[in-house]
C-alpha cells in the first residue's frame, strides 16, 4: 500500500496536524510506503543553506509524525523549493536496494532550480520503481513549455546509467496545467454545481495526452474533486484578489507501468526480468481543510501487487540472549553467499522509533568488532558502555557500505536497564531531598 502526497506549500511552515492528509485515521491496513512531494518549500538563501547542513523543517515534521508509527525516512532529495521524501515500514527495508536520487533544473534555461524535477529511483523486491516530483512553468500560455520541460526531465533522469528494463514511474507535483478556453464564470459555476466533467475536455493535460505520444502511457485517476488552485489562504474560497485567477487542477498524480507483454518468451511465459507490477488506484482526492497555501494538497493511495524477485534478506541478524545495559552484549548474524560484504559495513542499535539510517544509538563494525566466525554465522561484540542505561525497546540494522542501504533488520527486543546506576540516581535524589535546609523547605511550602 502506497500513499502519495503532492502539495505546493507556498513557503509556509508545516500545519499542526496531518492525520487526514496521511490517512492515519483510516480503518484499513496501514500504509507500507509514503511518498511525499512538496513544491515551494521555503528556499530563501538563509533557509536553504541551513537546510543543507540540517534537515529542513518539513522533513523533521514528517519524521516526527511517522517514526513513532514504525516508518523510516528511506531517502530524500531537495532542489531549492522542491522536496521529495520517502518513508517505508521497517519490514520492507531489506528488500529495497539501489536507491538513487537525481534532480533536473529547468528554470532560467536550466540554470535555476525554481522549476524542474527531483527523482528517487529504487529496486523494490527486485522491481525498479521511480518517483518524480515536478514543478512546471506557470500561466495559461505556457502549455508547450510545460510539456517540453517534462519531456526533458524524463530524458535526463539518471542519464547514462544502466537502468533495468522494468521501469515504472509515478509522476506528480504542481504541474501547472490550466483549464483553457472557458471563462472564469463558467468554470466557477461548473465547480459550484459539481459538474467537473464539463471542464475535463478543456484541461490542458487531458488535451495534451491525446496528442503527445510520451504522455499516452501515463494514467491518471478521475478528477472527481474541485480544482486545487487558487484559493485564498486559510479558506476554501477561490481567489478574491485583483488577479482573480481561474481555478485549475494544477496538482496532479499520474503513473506509468511499463508493459512488457510484447516481450513474452517463445514458450508463452515470462522471464523473471519481464514480470510487471500491477498498480491499483484506491483513491485520488484533494484535502480542502488545509489552508496554509493557495494550493490544496492532493493524495493518491495505490495498491502495488508484484511477484517478489527477492524473497530473502541478504543478512539475518538478532541479539544473542537477553540484553542488559549492565554488561557487554553479542550480535549474531548470517549473510547469503552472494552478499558483497565490506570492511566498512556496520550494525547499528536503533530505538524502534528511529527516523533515518543515521539515527542510531551506537554501532559496531562487523570486522573490527567481530569475535567469532564460522560457515553459518558470525558474532559481533558491543560494549555495555555504549548501551543506554535506561534500557527500552530497540532493534538492530545491518548497513551495507557497498549497497548504501540497510540489508538486514532484527525483530524489536527489550534491553534491561542498568539497575545499579538507576539505584544510585534514586539514592542521590533521596539524599538531596533529606539534606534540604529547613528555610528552603518553608519557602517551597509558602
From TrEMBL:
Signal peptide: none
GO annotations of cellular component type: endoplasmic reticulum; plasma membrane; ruffle
Domain Inositol polyphosphate-related phosphatase: 1-310
GO annotation terms (biological process): negative regulation of glycogen biosynthetic process; negative regulation of insulin receptor signaling pathway; negative regulation of phosphatidylinositol 3-kinase/protein kinase B signal transduction; phosphatidylinositol dephosphorylation
UniProt-listed InterPro entries: Endo/exonu/phosph_ase_sf, IP5, IPPc, SKICH
Pfam families registered for this protein in UniProt: Exo_endo_phos2 (PF22669), SKICH (PF17751)
GO molecular function: inositol bisphosphate phosphatase activity; phosphatidylinositol-3,4,5-trisphosphate 5-phosphatase activity; phosphatidylinositol-4,5-bisphosphate 5-phosphatase activity
CDD domains for the chain: INPP5c_INPP5J-like
Similarity remark: Belongs to the inositol 1,4,5-trisphosphate 5-phosphatase type II family.
Name the record gives this protein: INP5K phosphatase
Amino acid at each position: 500500500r502506497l500513499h502519495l502526497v503532492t502539495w505546493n506549500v507556498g513557503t509556509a511552515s508545516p500545519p499542526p496536524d496531518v492525520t487526514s492528509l496521511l490517512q492515519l485515521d483510516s480503518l484499513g491496513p496501514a500504509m507500507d510506503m509514503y511518498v511525499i512531494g512538496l513544491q515551494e518549500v521555503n528556499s530563501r538563501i538563509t533557509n536553504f543553506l541551513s537546510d543543507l547542513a540540517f534537515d529542513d523543517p518539513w522533513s523533521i515534521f514528517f519524521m516526527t509524525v511517522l517514526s513513532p508509527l514504525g516508518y523510516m525516512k528511506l531517502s530524500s532529495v531537495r532542489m531549492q523549493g522542491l522536496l521529495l521524501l520517502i518513508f517505508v515500514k521497517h519490514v520492507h527495508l531489506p528488500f529495497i536496494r539501489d536507491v538513487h536520487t537525481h534532480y533536473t533544473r529547468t528554470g532560467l534555461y536550466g540554470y535555476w532550480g525554481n522549476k524542474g524535477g527531483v527523482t528517487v529511483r529504487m529496486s523494490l523486491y527486485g522491481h525498479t520503481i521511480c518517483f518524480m516530483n515536478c514543478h512546471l512553468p506557470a500561466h495559461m500560455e505556457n502549455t508547450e513549455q510545460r510539456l517540453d520541460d517534462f519531456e526533458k526531465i524524463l530524458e535526463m533522469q539518471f542519464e547514462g546509467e544502466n537502468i533495468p528494463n522494468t521501469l515504472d514511474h509515478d509522476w506528480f507535483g504542481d504541474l501547472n496545467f490550466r483549464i483553457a478556453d472557458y471563462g472564469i464564470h463558467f468554470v466557477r459555476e461548473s465547480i459550484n454545481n459539481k459538474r467537473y466533467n464539463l471542464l475535463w475536455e478543456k484541461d490542458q493535460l487531458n488535451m495534451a495526452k491525446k496528442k503527445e505520444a510520451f504522455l499516452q502511457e501515463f494514467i491518471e485517476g478521475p478528477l472527481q474533486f474541485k480544482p486545487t488552485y487558487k484559493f485564498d489562504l486559510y479558506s476554501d474560497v477561490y481567489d478574491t484578489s485583483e488577479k482573480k485567477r481561474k481555478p485549475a487542477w494544477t496538482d496532479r498524480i499520474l503513473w506509468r507501468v511499463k508493459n512488457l507483454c510484447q516481450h513474452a518468451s517463445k514458450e508463452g511465459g515470462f522471464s523473471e526480468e519481464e514480470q510487471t507490477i500491477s498498480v491499483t488506484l484506491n483513491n485520488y482526492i484533494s484535502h480542502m481543510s488545509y489552508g496554509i497555501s493557495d494550493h490544496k494538497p492532493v493524495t493518491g493511495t495505490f495498491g502495488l501487487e508484484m511477484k517478489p524477485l527477492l524473497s530473502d534478506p541478504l543478512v539475518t541478524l538478532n541479539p544473542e540472549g537477553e540484553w542488559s545495559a549492565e554488561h557487554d552484549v553479542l550480535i549474531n548474524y548470517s549473510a547469503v553467499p552472494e552478499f558483497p560484504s565490506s570492511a566498512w559495513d556496520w550494525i547499528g542499535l536503533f530505538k524502534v522509533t528511529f527516523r533515518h539510517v543515521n539515527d542510531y544509538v551506537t554501532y559496531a563494525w562487523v570486522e573490527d568488532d567481530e569475535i567469532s566466525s564460522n560457515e553459518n554465522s558470525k558474532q559481533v561484540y558491543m560494549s555495555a558502555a555504549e548501551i543506554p542505561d535506561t534500557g527500552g525497546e530497540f532493534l538492530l540494522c545491518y548497513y551495507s557500505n557497498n549497497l548504501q542501504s540497510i540489508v538486514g533488520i532484527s525483530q524489536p527486543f527489550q534491553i534491561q536497564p542498568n539497575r545499579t546506576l538507576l539505584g544510585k540516581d534514586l539514592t542521590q535524589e533521596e539524599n538531596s531531598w533529606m539534606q534540604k535546609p529547613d528555610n528552603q523547605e518553608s519557602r517551597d511550602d509558602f
